[in-house]
């Protein structure tokens, strides 16, 4: 049974609806708060949490419930209220389901998953208690050791929810890794993938054939010394610590779709007139004909796209960095993560953007030079890498092998071109000369790569170009 239950309602759950949900275990259940009042918890007789209910989130962006849950929500805008049950306690899971079902009934909506929310009756929990919570535990953490925090997720798409984002921050502050355990059918949102790619953070998948494996690398895992760690091969040595790869991870059905991935950085002077997000909106419009649909500091992205609001948030958080996720319209799957940092050079935006295309849809390759020129001439582009790869149209990351992308082009901003001596930026080892972008007196340069986009040897050309630009 799922650990997370979500109510999707047309109206905001009012205090009476919240009270009815919190009485799912009867009037004698203890209630307390966490997260500065943003989380309400139903507790056992000792004050240990059985169910944690997050403050309702107002979602104004279409397609998010469909993308992350496969659920049909009320018409936009609607309210998203999450309840998380304590892992391994069946009554707590039923309690979370009843709580969400009552919220959905009283606030005009539905709950996900449907099978967990079929009853409005009080859940019998007399005498029920849960294990003591570790002193440094986070509400979303199921297991805590001196090495890692473990989160168990049973969703179709593991997203960078507010709870999971807080768990990442809490683990990093405590100098711990975060390991997310999922069933075999789960996928990752691209917003989560990067955060789980650094040791000892892992995506731990329960193998249908028994055991566990890393969903991003395929390494067979075991619980060892307080964390999930790779199982060494019998012939492993200190110089070659190889590990077996799960057979399930290698069962690959070639993806029918393709993904266009664009990674770029812009650097702006820090002044009161600066508006962030313009570069992302420009390239989004150029490649899709429309601006982004929405953004947020977690998933689901709940706010309509607004560069001004994004700038205000980053300014309020400075000098601390700001991370946000940006999504597109459901008709063209698109997702970007943006990290905004204040540095000595100014205000930097690091953007990872991707769009998904079906087998009968052509990525707009011809529009890439124009998109690059917009960023180079109007948005202080520092560098950009454009890749194409065979992968799912919906952008979800499966626990199976996916081939890497192939570089289509690299772009170097005007400031960086002018900083390379001896006109070396123009005299490259590539077959095709770089195309100037912007003013001829101070251009940025667009380096296209020749060859079949499915040919991984193109990476050798990219590496040769990088060594050349660095003077190696």
Write structural notes for this entry.
Helix 1 (about 15-20) runs antiparallel to helix 3 (about 90-105) and helix 7 (about 280-290) runs antiparallel to helix 9. The longest helix has 17 residues, at about 90-105. This protein has about 475 residues and is of the alpha+beta class. It has 11 helices and 26 strands. A hairpin with a 5-residue loop joins strand 13 (about 200-205) and strand 14. It is about 20% helix and about 30% strand.
Placed side by side, the strands forming the largest sheet appear as 19-18-20-21-22-17-23-24-26-25
Instruction: Please state the structural category.
Output: alpha+beta
The rough form would be described as globular
Total DSSP helices = 11
Give average pLDDT, whole number: 88
DSSP E strands, number: 26
Which ranges are low-confidence, i.e. pLDDT below 50, for 5 or more consecutive residues? Answer: 124-132
Q: Sheet with the most strands?
A: 10 strands, antiparallel
């Amino acid at each position: 049974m799922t650990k997370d239950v979500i109510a999707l309602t047309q109206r905001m759950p009012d205090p009476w609806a919240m009270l009815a949900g919190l009485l799912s275990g009867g009037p004698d259940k203890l209630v307390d708060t966490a997260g500065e009042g943003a989380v309400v918890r139903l507790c056992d007789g000792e004050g240990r949490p059985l169910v944690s209910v997050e403050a309702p989130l107002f979602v104004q962006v279409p397609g998010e419930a469909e993308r992350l849950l496969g659920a049909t929500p009320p018409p936009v805008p609607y309210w998203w209220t999450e309840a998380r049950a304590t892992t391994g306690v069946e009554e707590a899971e039923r309690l979370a389901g009843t709580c969400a079902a009552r919220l959905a009934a009283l606030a005009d909506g539905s709950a996900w998953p449907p099978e967990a929310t079929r009853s409005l009756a009080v859940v019998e929990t007399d005498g029920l208690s849960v294990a003591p919570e570790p002193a440094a535990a986070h509400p979303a953490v199921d297991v805590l050791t001196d090495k890692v925090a473990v989160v168990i997720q049973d969703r179709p798409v593991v997203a960078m929810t507010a709870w999971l984002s807080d768990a990442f921050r809490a683990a990093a502050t405590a100098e711990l890794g975060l390991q997310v355990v999922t069933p075999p059918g789960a996928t990752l949102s691209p917003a989560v993938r990067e955060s789980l790619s650094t040791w000892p953070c892992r995506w731990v998948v329960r193998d249908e054939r028994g055991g566990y494996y890393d969903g991003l690398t395929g390494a067979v895992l075991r619980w060892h010394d307080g964390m999930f760690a790779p199982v060494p091969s019998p012939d492993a040595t200190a110089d070659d610590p190889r590990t077996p790869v799960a057979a399930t991870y290698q069962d690959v059905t070639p993806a029918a779709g393709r993904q266009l991935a664009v990674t770029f950085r812009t650097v702006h002077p820090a002044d009161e007139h600066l508006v962030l997000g313009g570069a992302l909106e420009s390239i989004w419009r150029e490649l899709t004909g429309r601006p982004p649909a929405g953004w947020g500091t977690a998933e689901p992205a709940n706010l309509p796209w607004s560069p001004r609001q994004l700038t205000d948030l980053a300014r309020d958080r400075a000098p601390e960095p700001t991370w946000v996720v940006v999504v597109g319209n459901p008709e063209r799957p698109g997702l970007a993560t943006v990290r905004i940092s204040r540095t000595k050079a100014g205000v930097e935006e690091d953007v990872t953007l991707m769009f998904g295309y079906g087998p009968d849809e052509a990525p707009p390759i011809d529009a890439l030079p124009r998109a690059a020129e917009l960023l180079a001439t109007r948005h202080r582009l520092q560098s950009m890498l454009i890749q194409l790869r065979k992968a799912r149209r919906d952008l979800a990351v499966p626990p199976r092998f996916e081939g890497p992308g192939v570089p289509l082009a690299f772009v170097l901003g005007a400031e960086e071109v002018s900083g390379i001596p001896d006109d070396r930026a123009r005299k490259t080892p590539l077959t095709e000369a770089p195309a100037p972008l912007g003013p001829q007196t101070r251009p940025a340069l667009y380096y296209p790569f020749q060859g079949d986009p499915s040919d991984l040897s193109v990476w050798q050309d990219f590496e040769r170009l990088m060594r050349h630009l660095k003077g190696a």
